[in-house]
Design goal:
The structure holds two protein chains of two kinds.
Chain A: E1 5-12, H1 15-28, E2 33-36, H2 44-47, H3 55-81, H4 98-120, E3 144-148, H5 153-165, E4 170-175
Chain B: H1 16-28, H2 34-60, H3 75-99, H4 106-130, H5 156-189, H6 193-203, H7 210-243, H8 255-281, H9 290-321, H10 324-335, H11 339-351, H12 359-362, H13 365-392, H14 407-430, H15 436-450
The chains are: A alpha+beta, B mainly alpha.
Chain lengths: 176, 451
């Protein structure tokens, strides 16, 4: 081996094969791995041990804080800071505060969803070792990859043998 | 999925590779044709017309437009409502149909979302210009100003500012998130280094990891869930701009649902107007099939009927209320000085769409294209009638007046097509017009279903 390794990677032609491979790898005891595919495949994330995403919680927090922020701002400005008596109508005229509260809820929830997703995914990240494999270009097009993170030479050989047993198109070494 | 008797959503014989190839080649391989250059040149010329009209407006003020008292809302508001309505179909397709598991939306959602963004951009221009002093537009927003003032939260016009800007922002986020995996595909298929770099930067280093996909899908579906009430709220708020005023012909509770239906109606008309030529020019008939056109036509028919119902209820309520001003506005629309506009809208929005009851017409692109164009015209006229006829004769005959658009009004309106078309041409040339990711998924699922 010339340079340091990030892991080994198997290339598959079909989504079903990737799903099967991910399940066998997990059963075999591999944990530090990731699957790559040109479109989302149901069950693969669960198969590699990624059970739950925290995106919904973030969206809820974003939405609720947007609502409080918007309502609080309107209450403060219309009742406290700039109390303007319009024909004796109540200063705290809550029904007319609803539309802006609603819009801000949606806005903050959407921001939380998108930026939360990107941050949790560690994006933007222009460089990643998997891009060192030339065939990985196909991960965004037609092929399906399963990458096991291994560095110790002995385990690398084991992992390679295991991946080969899954009958992939090819097994690649991912250099760091 | 589609059953055996129904035509498939995608023509048979495609797989991941060919879908990817066909969509990306439009951008990466296809040479910039003469047609594109001519089209873009025309759009750009119109954009310059817009620039010219806005330039003169900034120098002379909105006195160059036809607006005056009593008709203070002229073309600017008509165009604003029309453009923003068009945007609604994009969100309807991308968000509501996603939540309803309508797989056919897949091949038109990207395009429709782009249409939404560009239409909202055009829409946003008009109220800003209508301010008279657009450079102080930030007075509309809550910010710590030296005078200690706040916006008036009880005013629908302030709601409108927040609704439209939220709508634009959320649509942009939704569109961009959907684009990320496709940008990665573009990056990986690009041949030239510079092109790889540009798409690479925009793709944010997307690598299709299963963990990322999981969060991505979750985000996407949640955004759809957020965009659904948002899109319904936007045109409702726009309609409230009218309905909260006591002007006869505006002051009506039917406005929010009636405006939302009208928005989706005109939006689908615009989707058809754009998609029918695009699928032909870029040879995408296998992906955007007759089934898609037919479904759009069905939605147009349904929303068109809702709009017609709205017209009926408006007239009925005017009579039933026994309010002499409401009755007068209704009669004035039908028989008064703006009667031709009213009859055009009835013809285009109520009579013409009835042709869509027939499958033969729904499956003929040329016929659909003509109907869609007429509906676009009709819906613009509808907003013209709502804005102008109500204002020009309200309560006191002594304060009645007449409105007609000046050439600057027309130049601004026609110029806004330049902005819209320029953005659309650039979009078609530079970004994948269909969601490659979703098409791959669809093709795979179709194959699974067929097994």
């Amino acid at each position: 081996m010339k340079s340091k390794l990030y892991g080994v990677m198997a290339e598959f032609a079909q989504p079903e094969e990737l799903l099967q491979a991910a399940r066998s790898a997990y059963a075999e005891g591999y944990r530090k791995m990731d699957a790559y595919s040109p479109f989302p495949i149901e069950g693969v994330a669960e198969a590699i041990g990624f059970k739950k995403t925290r995106v919904p919680m973030l969206v809820l927090i974003g939405g609720v804080s947007g609502a409080f922020l918007a309502y609080g701002m309107q209450y403060y400005s219309a009742v406290k800071d700039y109390a303007l008596n319009v024909g004796g109508r109540p200063l705290h005229s809550w029904p007319s505060f609803v539309p802006i509260t609603f819009e801000m809820t949606i806005l903050c929830a959407a921001f939380a969803a998108v930026f939360g997703m990107l941050v949790m995914n560690g994006l933007p990240r222009p460089y990643h070792p998997v891009f060192n494999v030339p065939e990985f270009k196909l991960a965004s097009q037609t092929r399906f990859f399963l990458c096991i993170k291994v560095t110790d030479p002995k385990v690398v050989e084991q992992a390679k043998a295991f991946l080969n047993s899954l009958k992939p198109i090819a097994v690649h070494e991912v250099e760091l | 999925m589609s059953t055996a008797t129904e035509p498939p959503i995608v023509a048979p014989g495609y797989d991941s590779a060919t879908v990817t190839e066909k969509i990306t080649e439009v951008v990466l391989k296809r040479p910039t044709g003469l047609g594109w250059i001519c089209g873009f040149a025309l759009a750009f010329a119109l954009l310059m017309v817009l620039n010219f009209a806005i330039g003169w407006l900034l120098i002379r003020g909105i006195g160059i437009w036809g607006v005056n008292i009593p008709v203070g809302w002229g073309f600017a508001i008509v165009n604003f409502v029309w453009w923003i309505g068009i945007g609604h179909a994009g969100t309807f397709i991308s968000a509501i149909l996603l939540l309803l598991h309508q797989d056919w939306r897949t091949s038109i959602n990207r395009f429709a979302e782009a249409m939404t963004l560009f239409a909202v951009a055009c829409a946003g221009l008009f109220p800003l210009l209508h301010l008279g002093r657009p450079w102080v537009f930030f007075w509309l927003l809550p910010y710590p100003d030296t005078m200690g003032l706040w916006p008036q939260w009880r005013s629908p016009l302030v709601w409108d500012v927040l609704a439209v800007s939220t709508y634009l922002t959320v649509s942009l986020l939704f569109w961009y998130v959907g684009l990320i995996p496709d940008l990665a595909t573009m990056r990986d298929r690009a041949q030239r280094r510079a092109v790889q770099l540009i798409y690479g930067v925009m793709a944010l280093g997307w690598r299709g990891s299963a963990r990322h996909w999981k969060r991505f899908q979750c985000t996407y579906i949640l955004l759809a869930g957020l965009a659904t009430p948002l899109v319904l709220s936007v045109h409702s708020v726009v309609s409230v701009d009218f309905a909260v005023a006591i002007v006869p012909g505006w002051h009506s509770t039917v406005f929010p649902p009636y405006f939302v239906a009208g928005a989706i109606f005109s939006g689908f008309a615009m989707v058809l107007t754009l998609v029918i030529p695009v699928r032909r020019i870029y040879a995408l008939e296998d992906f955007i099939t007759i089934k898609h056109l037919e479904n759009c036509a069905k939605i147009m028919l349904a929303t068109g009927l809702m709009v017609a119902h709205g017209y009926g209820i408006e007239a009925f309520m005017a009579w039933y209320s026994d309010d002499r001003f409401d009755i007068y506005v209704t009669l004035n629309r039908i028989l008064g000085p703006y009667a031709p506009a009213w009859w055009v809208l009835i013809f285009c929005n109520v009579i013409v769409p009835q042709a869509l009851w027939f499958k033969k017409i729904r499956t003929r692109p040329v016929a659909l294209f003509v109907i869609a164009l007429l509906v676009n015209v009709g819906m613009w006229t509808e907003r013209y009638v709502i804005v102008v006829t109500s204002l020009h004769r309200d309560f006191l005959p002594s304060s009645w007046g007449f409105y007609s658009a000046t050439r600057w009004d027309w130049m601004t309106f026609i110029g806004s097509f330049g902005l819209f078309l320029c953005l659309l041409f650039l979009f078609l040339r530079l970004l994948p017009a269909l969601s490659i990711t979703e098409m791959r998924e669809l093709v795979w699922k179709q194959k699974e279903g067929g097994k």
